[in-house]
Amino acid sequence: MVRAHVSLTTIRQLVETKMIPRISIHRSLTCLHHAVGGVRWKSSFRQAPIFTATPARALIDEQVSIKGSFLPPRCPVTVCAQMHSDEGDLWEAFAHYNTDADGTVNCEFRVARDHSVGGSYLGCEPMGLFWGLQPAPGAREGLRLKKKDVETPYVVQMSLLEGHVTPSERQSTELAAVATERWYMAPGVQRKEIRQDGVVGTMFLPPGPGPFPAILDLWGMGGGLVEYRSALFASRGYVSLSLAYFNHRDLPGPLNRISVGDSYFKSAFKLLQDHPQVCGNRIGIIGLSYGVYLTLRMATQVDVNPSCLICINGPIGTNVKPSDADDETEPTDSGLKYWTYDDQGYVSFREISLPANLIPETKVKLENITCPLMYIVGEDDLSASSIENADVIEETLKAAGKSQLFTRLSYPGAGHLIEPPYAPNSRAALWCIKPRKMFTLWGGHPAPHAAAQEDSWKRVLDFMENNLRR
Length: 470
Known about the structure:
Layout: H1 8-16, H2 30-33, E1 40-41, E2 50-54, E3 57-59, E4 65-71, E5 76-84, E6 90-98, E7 107-110, E8 118-119, H3 128-131, E9 134-135, E10 154-162, E11 174-183, E12 190-196, E13 199-205, E14 212-218, H4 228-235, E15 239-243, H5 262-274, E16 278-288, H6 290-299, E17 308-312, E18 321-322, E19 329-330, E20 340-341, E21 347-348, E22 373-378, H7 386-399, E23 406-411, E24 428-432, E25 438-441, H8 446-469
Parallel strand pairs: 3-11, 14-15, 14-16, 16-17, 17-22, 22-23
Antiparallel strand pairs: 1-11, 2-4, 4-7, 5-6, 5-10, 6-8, 6-9, 10-11, 12-13, 13-15, 18-19, 20-21, 24-25
């Protein structure tokens, strides 16, 4: 095995000046395979193939340009992307391309320009190798890709293979390889765990002294503490507080109960307001799924004055019955009759969140909303009746003379989990393991869901720019 310690450019220059002979370099140079931005190749009597992915390090919402060069004309090639989740599971995607047909020396293909003719996606999809990632064959059932450690990147290894093959066909010749890092957390962003005034969360601070606008980040009934969206918001210049309110060991009460109420969420909002690096009058709230209900409920509290709201696929009320004490909530079986199941036994919560099926006293007084509200709808949402809830919000604000506050984004083919762009969608995933293992349906089809994530993220950032910075 030959180890290459000089750059590809240097090798090329030496070849062209006849300082070194054109020799064949073994294709399995592991030192280059594992280096970010590194290249592995085989050389013969012609220029060795070059495979690039730029930038080599980028935020998760940034595009990567993937290109293969110095390939024969009309050459079928396969691009394979593989990466491991934080839990160690292998995810992969692949696509079939054909090189130029002009017969020139530098025949190439570009993922951003050329069309995939087979594999994980079809057509011209510049980021298809990322949003097209799926668990490798033989993986555990019900996987969903979620970044748990935002202080480390996903490292995506990409290979350029000869012919139109699948990733399992490792007998195919590997022409070159390259790796790229995908980050949620930009250099200079600070991550701080919050255990203050009973509030459990993680705060992310952009580089610099501030003060910055801020966002309170609420997820759904999966519970725990989800940090990756907040880390990305901070990477875009916003202080962000990801808040735990259910199924977290540092919260009071049993894990299967929401044991915090209005006072808890007000404390979290005030914690942001009082932070020395936050513009106290420029704070928004974003919620996904059950987090939508909490977002809307907070916005109608007398002493909470958010500058804007972002709601993604969630209800205007709940089937979790309010408790008589301490503003807490307690579980109820009244919603179980609305659970529906597919042929595999996977559960859908869509009917339980229909406005007509919500507990009347929990419905938010939407007419009291006073700030701009963006509602994002995945029209193939199988976990919440997002279309119907968006209709109620729109109609209520219109009746209250507040139509100008409402922005609605609706995406055909998109599912429940509309997240930052280029992350793969899971149409169904493991929901819980106790008291029994249960899988839930999220909905969404790969290409339209990916398009929804890309478009909605740009619009979310624009919405925040207009309402939190100006």
